[in-house]
Amino acid sequence: MLGLVETRSVSPVFVGRAEELDTLNDALARAAGGGTSQASSTGGEPQALLLGGEAGVGKTRLVEEFSTAAARKGAVVALGGCVEIGADGLPFAPFSTALRALRRELPDELAAAAAGQEEELARLLPELGDTGTGRPDEEGMARLFELTARLLERVAADRTVVVALEDLHWADASTRHLLAYLFRTLRTGRLVVLATYRSDDIHRRHPLRPLLAELDRLRTVQRIELARFNRAEVARQIAGIHAAEPDPAQVDEIFQRSDGNAFFVEELAVAAHEGCRTGLTDSLRDLLLVRVEALPESAQRVVRIVAEGGSTVEYRLLAAVAGLAEDDLIEALRAAVNANILLAAPTGDGYRFRHSLVREAVADDLLPGERSRLNRRYAEALEADPGLVPADQRVMRLASYWYHAHDAAKALPAVLDASVAARRRHAYSEQLRLLERAMELWDPAPEDVRAALRPAGYTDVYRAPDGGDQANTALRYLDLMAAAAVASRFCGERERALKITKRALRLLEDEDDPLLAAWFWVQRSRLVQAKARDDGWKELATAQELVRGLPPSEVHAEVLTNVAGWSMLHQPGAEALAAAERAVEYARMVEAREVELNARVTRGVLLVDAGDIEAGLAEMYEVKEQSLAGSFTHVAGRTYVNLPSELEAVGRSLEAAGILEEGTGFARKYGLLDTEAWVWGNLSDSLFSLGRWDESAEAASNALRRGHSAKPQGTAALCLANVALARGDAAEAGHQLAAAHGYFGTHDPMPQQWLPLAFIAIGVAASEGRILDARGELDRALDAGIPPGTQRYGWKLLLAAATAEADSRSLPAARQGREEALERIFSTVKRLTTGAPIWVAHEKWVRAELQRAEGIADPDTWSEVVTAFERLERPYDLARVRHRLAEALLTAGGEDDRDRAIELLRLAHAVADHLGARPLADAVGLLAQRARLSLRQAPQQSPAADPVQALGLTSRERDVLRLVSIGRTNRQIAEELFISPKTASVHVSNILGKLGVSGRGEAAALAHRLGLFPSETLGAPTAG
Questions:
Q1: Angle at 855 between CA 854 and CA 860, to 5 degrees
Q2: For residue 799, what pLDDT is reported?
Q3: Longest C-alpha distance within the chain, in Å?
Q4: What is the pTM of this model?
Q5: CA separation, residue 914 to residues 157, 171, 727, 791 (Å)
Q6: Which of 127, 156, 325, 406 is deepest in the core (most CB within 10 A)?
Q7: How far is the CA of 33 from the CAs of 40, 185, 993, in angstroms?
Q8: Residue ranges of the alpha helices (H) in 17-117?
Q9: Radius of gyration of the chain (CA)
Q10: Is 894 exposed, middle or buried (0-12, 13-18, 19+ CB in 10 A)?
């Protein structure tokens, strides 16, 4: 091995780039919390930067200069570069390299940050341990990304860390996705993430182009474009290389020839210094090759071998491929290093080109047969001694070498092995690319090679139909298509997945394999739902027909589980429960433990919805414990969503909130983003019920921020709308309602969506006095139906509609159609289930509101409602029905009921004031004012301090004068104060006499002149 050799062509003087370096240093300072060292006591915020520029413009030199300066300021710098093997990128290569560097610099800190997640994070950093062996799932990649973000945040919690990722234009899709995720989600930590790319390589169809466009839209990402040098900067660069002032004519010639590209300035300056004419060749590419061709033949041969080996080639691998005696190889390498064509790799165990432009020029100059021959020799050397390359690169590089050697017999199994490695790393985009290569190689590969391949390991997404020994089952082309369909779905390439499944089902028309066909139909069901094209039932029904009557199998169990799950959400009821029962039974028969647990969650939900509450809850509690014990993370996550949701449905909000708070930690620990969003949304519901509205709104905001799919975000928007509506902000409620509609879309309607949407819409319309619109919303919701098991949403809907009708009873616009609306509500009430105390209470409440809508105020009816809610964990609902009972007592009760009414109003007002429920507080205050009741005991005042009493007016006369002063008639005064119009007239006459005025107008003017009733209190509810 050779050590580092001084490079004559690199200027020891850093030229220009002051503005760009200032931008990077400013980002470093912001990340450090405004200070310049890791010891800064002020926490900073993560910084994201993109550095672009054409090849050779000086991106790497700028990164090196910045990294050196950052290290001097106390930052920990971790560099990672995208690795190219032929035309292939290694999955997550720059992140693996950067994390490895962090581990070297901060071994204890990184170990502490990764604690508990080593199995998952080992997909990026194998040194942390073995990766999990569980089956892949759709959240796997998002989970890995989330855990990586949290790892970096923890490592950078009390020190400044710079992660620099170079050559993003070579990045694999998984690396691009992870970088985008980090740029979007990093929120804490003293972290700078810097990525570089070649701007001149980003053509219209380059895969990096959409990512750059996406990142441009993020305000948190700074983009730096590195321009070419001007003439003065070129002159300083040449002076640095030559250690002397250059001849101006030579500067002009090199500047014109290089056009200010820093790398070509170096090459041309060296050529001039060595006596070569800068115009010797027709192109700058030729200039690079001239320097290679000036090497001894053995050195040229080694350079060509390195060019085809990848970004970096290990010394031992190079020796095996070159076949030279060690002394000859060393001499050849020394010549290439002295010529500044090759450099020792930073790790010290291999060689790389000084600049990728030189490597590309050499590789492009290889003959087609020469390229394939070199790849074969690399592959043969690696097969003979797998230890020649790092273990985490071995499988991928072997697959690439054999593929580019154009040897289908060797390439097919190697590519399949690489696809498994990619899947285990959650690099599903690379898995898909490799599986597509395998399908490309399938026909060219010899029959005996294909016959020797087995499904086990390669296509675990689909098990053998008979559940038998896959060691004796040959791998089929359709098995590859199955794996490719799942990989496409997992990496977000859903359109490709649809095309793959469509083609597979066409091929299956000529095959007798109903189980595999059913499996593909299940995939299509998921895909059409995810693509917002349909609800997926047609595809599931087709799958169900295909497996009907077949012996039990895992596919059969999965089909039934999916059917039950779909029915639970779309058509809950007896048939859905029967499907869940069959799914559990079939899964147990074939010992598909995860499928069984998943089906049992569905069964538990459906049991609760069917009225068998305790059995259903017990089922879900048991599944929760078993899935946690068995490390079935996906199923456990589902129990943290569905179990508390059902507890909330039956009114056990406090119990639900406890499980949900535990669930947020579980979902965050395992990076289950959508699960976490669902948990936050359900927690928002339970906190609202418990009267913790500020926390409820915060939980809903967390759900919006954490979720990466639309439905949990739609649920969160509904939670925010509910809080806004209860607090009297109809505009905000309407805004969140519109957002929820947008999230849910129209392609996949579910009762758990359309009923809450209608509930909020009715509330918004009623609060704005639009009773006809409220009725229209109710009609549409009831036309869609309230299926069995959705009473939790149905009762709230009917209550909102009945309350709107009661509140609008005096509106002329509400008269037409009132009887039909009330009749429809009443007939729906008679059909709706009341299987839990919460819904018994709601039934009583809805019936009481229907009576109120008919003008009936029966204290006994409302007393029953209050008694029902006093047993529940619903402070806001209890406050509302107490207000209505107080109103009924004051309207229809006797004088003896006033004390009870004021106590009810005080309790209701205290809750409304605490929650910020302005409409309820206003209603309670107004009722108390009209009834001459004080909501809290006012301090005693001396007669001299009260001008009203000084005028000789009684308390009742004071109330009447106040209403006179704001223009009320005797009838209006009577209605406000619950007295007869005749009594009001008597009070007015007495007031006129005591004030010594001749009429109502003079009395009002006197009251205003004396300031008896300040304007800010007129018409406002009495607060005490």
A1: 100
A2: 96
A3: 127
A4: 0.76
A5: 37, 54, 11, 29
A6: 156
A7: 7, 19, 75
A8: 18-31, 59-72, 93-105, 107-114
A9: 38
A10: exposed
Cβ atoms of residues 656 and 681 within 8 Å = no
Q: Is the pLDDT of residue 632 over 50?
A: yes
Q: Record the tokens describing residue 343, joined without a space.
A: 């450099």
pLDDT at residue number 84: 61
Whether 315 shows a pLDDT value over 80: the answer reads yes
Which strand (E) or helix (H) includes residue 930? helix 918-930
Mean per-residue pLDDT for 864-884?
93
In degrees and rounded to multiples of 5, residue 705 shows phi and psi of -75, -35
Alpha-helical runs (H) found in 457-553: 477-490, 494-508, 514-530, 537-547
Residue 34, token pair as written in the block = 């405004």
How far is Cα 263 from Cα 341, in angstroms, rounded to an integer?
12
Q: Residue 996 has what pLDDT?
A: 64
The two tokens of residue 245 are 């002032």
Region for 84 from its dihedrals, namely left if φ exceeds 0, alpha if ψ lies in -120 to 50, beta otherwise: beta
State the Cα–Cα distance between residues 71 and 80, nearest whole angstrom: 16
Is the alpha carbon torsion for 460, 464, 465, 467 positive or negative? negative
3-class DSSP assignment, residue 85: strand
Q: What would the mean pLDDT of 36-48 be, rounded to a whole number?
A: 62
In this predicted structure, the answer to whether residue 85 has a pLDDT above a threshold of 70 is no
Higher pLDDT residue, 250 or 637?
637
Q: φ and ψ at 760, to 5 degrees?
A: -65, -40
Query: Cα angle vertex 362, ends 361, 367, to 5°?
Result: 110
What mean pLDDT value characterizes the chain? 86
| CB atoms inside a 10 Å sphere around CB 870 | 12
Residue 357 pLDDT grade (very low, low, confident, very high; cuts 50, 70, 90)? confident
Rounded distance, CA 77 to CA 339, Å? 30
Above 80 in pLDDT, residue 595?
yes
Q: What is the pLDDT of residues 102-119, one digit of tens each?
A: 999 999 999 999 988 888
How far apart are the C-alpha atoms of 583 and 597, rounded to whole Å?
10
In the block, residue with structure tokens 């879309």: 745
- Nearest-angstrom CA–CA distance, 667 and 636: 9
Inform me whether the pLDDT recorded for 946 exceeds 80. Answer: no
> Directed axis angle between helix 1000-1009 and helix 955-965, to 10°?
100
Q: Give CA separation, 852 vs 554, 859, 861, in Å.
A: 56, 11, 10
Helices (H), ranges, 808-917 = 818-831, 837-853, 859-870, 875-892, 898-915
> Cα–Cα distance between 508 and 482 in angstroms, integer?
12
Give the residue carrying structure tokens 């069964």: 603
Mean pLDDT of 640-667: 94
